[in-house]
Amino acid sequence: MGRLKMRIFIFFLALLWAPFAVAQNAPIDADTQSRLNEIYISTTDLSDVTAQVENGVVTLSGKIANSDLAKDAVGIADAQTGVIYIQDQIDRVLVADSNVVSALDSLKKDAADILQALPIIGLALLILLLFIWLGGVIARREKFWSRVATNPFLGDLLAQTMRIICIIIGLIIALNLLGAQAMIATILGGAGVVGIAIGFAVRDTLENYLASIMLSLRQPFRAGDHVLIGDRAGKVMRLTSRATILMTLDGNHLRIPNSTVFKAIILNYTTNPERRFDFELGIDAADDPVAAMQVGLDIMAAKDFILSEPAPSAGISNVGDSNIVIKYLGWIDQKNTSFGKARSLSIRGVKDALETQGFSLPEPIYRVKLDGVGGAALDLKPVGPSSEPKVISDLDQVFDVKPDQGIDEKVEQELADLDADNLLDDSKPTE
Q1: Can you give the pTM of this predicted structure?
Q2: Is 170 within the bounds of a domain?
Q3: 240 CB-near residues (< 8 Å, 6+ apart)
Q4: What range defines the domain where residue 177 resides?
Q5: Phi, psi of 361 (to 5 degrees)
Q6: How many domains does the chain divide into?
């Protein structure tokens, strides 16, 4: 009950004090209104603006040429002491003379500022051109970059990087001279965003470019090496900044992107000249497989093109219903012997030796049923010349087992004719 009485007392006290407060603010409002109107009248652009002040609230009215002048009028009112709130009731009208004069004045001011800044602009441009020239001079020092980098590709990459760094430094110094430090941050921020967007857009190209750098550093093969990259085989011709060029064994050019080469499984037949071949032959299930293995090993050991170390070997690969499959293995030197020819002659020699020693090489058996044909009606005599095969006992002397040099000669001729950069360097160690 006591609190309610206190609130009623304060309410009536406020009602009694209000007239005195208004009367006290009246002189301040009058002074503010008088000063604002004097300021507006004293200016040419704001002479049509009038101000009315009541209880600290300023109401601006009148006509004005453009919105920028209206903002100036509001700013002048806001700077006065005792102003609580500003009501902007100014009419924005298009006055041709005023707008044209204002625009011309602005152009004159801008032109004067540009003329005044021409010396500093010229100096900034001169510094930028100087750094561009310096970057070009540094990038053209091919001998220096060839000594610094491990290969020409990396040297060119470092040279171009230094050129870009010089241009960026020159641009930053030029903008600092012009007082455009904020623009530097904007440019760098925009460049970062643009760089990320471009990175996503050309991700495959960048991946291929980085793979080229790694391959040029690691040197996984030499020019002329016989390699198997994934499922693609051929002789290496050259490594460029975009692709690895192979010549297939049938004489065609094969271009493989370096990103694929870098991620692929690479089998290099040339790195180790010793290579093993194998083949399988089946004998009758009733024959002795160990004896057949020994016959084959003796024949292979007697051939000059098969290495004695590692020595040939043999083993039972599979046992079928009617035969035993024996697997024979031998080693050759690829520098002196053709892999395909050596394998072919070895198969022929072991097969003939097994047959000579009385081993049977089972063949598939087919049962043919002939309806309506008697046995007497069939003439099973051979027709024409004798069907006996002509056997050449000394076949190793007939066939030259030396490797075929045709593809190697084509690769050398292509490398001699093509005037192109090759990132493969024989003086660098391979991986």
Answers
A1: 0.53
A2: yes
A3: 212, 420, 421, 422, 423
A4: 101-201
A5: -105, 95
A6: 4
